[in-house]
Design brief:
Layout lengths: L1 H6 L15 E4 L3 E6 L2 E6 L2 E4 L2 E5 L3 H16 L7 E6 L2 E5 L2 E2 L2 E8 L2 H8 L19 E7 L2 E2 L12 H8 L2 H24 L2 E13 L2 E5 L8 E5 H9 L10 H9 L13 H19 L10 H11 L4
Antiparallel strand pairs: 1-2, 2-3, 3-7, 4-5, 6-7, 8-12, 9-10, 9-11, 9-12, 12-13, 12-14
Helix pairs in contact: 2-8
The structure holds adenosine-5'-triphosphate and magnesium ion.
């Protein structure tokens, strides 16, 4: 707890490297450098919600990178991924892929943005109809895929159907393979989470082609790209129409909604309390999911990364 508070002033908002490292692309969360057929991905401590960058969260970049690596390693034999090496706890060198212009979102429960749409009467936007009598946070019999477009910076991702994707955006053969991979990853993720007392509620995957091979890229099963709930609390909360006990980014979305922000206009400044709370949730998830203690890299993140990159001759 004290470590989190201390770290507030050391978080990494951005890491700008020399131009000669590669072509720079600033995502909402990552600072990326493309060089040759590789990509240097620095997961900063920035947090985004509703497509706005809001500020930074202590240890977030380290937690995301370590959780993503945990999953990439666990799943590498069933789905090829982009990992090459990991020169710092929050830096990855990966295979630079030709990205598919869609995100594959898989859900086992109706919650979050899908619930918000459904409860406003929106249905069918993904090319199939949801049952008409669902309750918030209800479990589906089997996972559903609700794809979205991958919007340009500053734009919102939009729902899209499978038919539209294979008609306009991705050859059917490739998209089917991506779906198959996504379902395999999600199945493995759900089973592992269940063993650790968690529910993997839903998640988002990105895929790309590298040397004609389809690989999973970006991050997998992190608390930025997924929802996780505490398994033992699910049934009681569901039956009593109470919010689920969640260990993911939804905490910050809920906080924003409580402040009256729903995605339009200027988001409120994060308070230290909410920054600390999200850090605690992410650390709790880390421990539950991996079964290991979290070892925070306390101190100035930027200097540490620069030292690691130069020691490993990356820069
Ligand atoms: N192996 C890869 N090859 C090519 N691009 C990748 C790879 N892995 C991730 N990316 C892309 O790198 C970027 C990572 O940055 P980040 O996660 O911050 O972006 P984002 O905020 O999710 O998306 P946006 O690009 O819309 O800002 C994403 O655009 C992602 O699609
Ligand atoms: Mg991303």
């Amino acid at each position: 707890m004290n470590e989190i508070k201390e770290q507030l002033k050391f978080t990494l908002n951005k890491l700008e490297l020399d131009d000669n490292v590669g072509q720079y692309y600033r995502g909402k969360v990552r600072d990326n450098y493309y060089f040759d057929d590789k990509m240097l991905m620095v997961t900063t401590d920035r947090v985004s919600a509703f497509d706005h960058v809001l500020g930074t969260i202590p240890f977030k970049g380290q937690i995301l990178t370590e959780i993503a690596n945990f999953w990439f390693d666990k799943t590498k034999d069933i789905v090829p991924n982009h990992v090459i090496s990991n020169p710092d706890p929050q830096v990855l060198i990966s295979k630079k892929a030709n990205t598919l212009p869609v995100e594959i979102i898989i859900r086992k429960y109706i919650t979050g943005s899908l619930w918000r749409e459904y409860s406003q009467g929106i249905n069918g936007q993904y090319g199939f109809m949801l049952d008409s009598d669902l309750k918030e946070n209800q479990e589906f019999e089997s996972p559903i895929i609700t794809p979205s477009t991958k919007a340009e910076y500053g734009q919102h991702d939009e729902p899209i159907s499978r038919d539209e994707i294979i008609k306009d955006l991705v050859p059917e053969e490739i998209y089917s393979k991506a779906e198959e991979y996504a379902l395999k990853l999600f199945d493995l993720g759900q089973k592992w989470a269940n063993k650790m007392g968690l529910i993997l509620v839903d998640t988002k995957y990105e895929f790309g082609l590298y040397n004609n091979e389809l690989i999973v890229i970006d991050e997998i099963h992190t608390p930025d790209s997924s929802r996780y709930w505490i398994k033992d609390d699910y049934a009681h909360n569901f039956e009593n129409n109470q919010p689920q006990n969640m260990l993911d980014k939804e905490n910050i979305r809920q906080w924003l909604i409580e402040q009256g922000f729903k995605g339009e206009g200027t988001p409120p400044d994060l308070t230290d309390d909410i920054r600390i709370l999200l850090s605690q949730k992410y650390i709790e998830l880390y421990k539950k999911l991996t079964g290991n203690e979290f070892e925070p890299q306390v101190g100035d993140v930027k200097n540490r990364i620069l030292a690691n990159l130069s020691e490993k001759s990356v820069i």
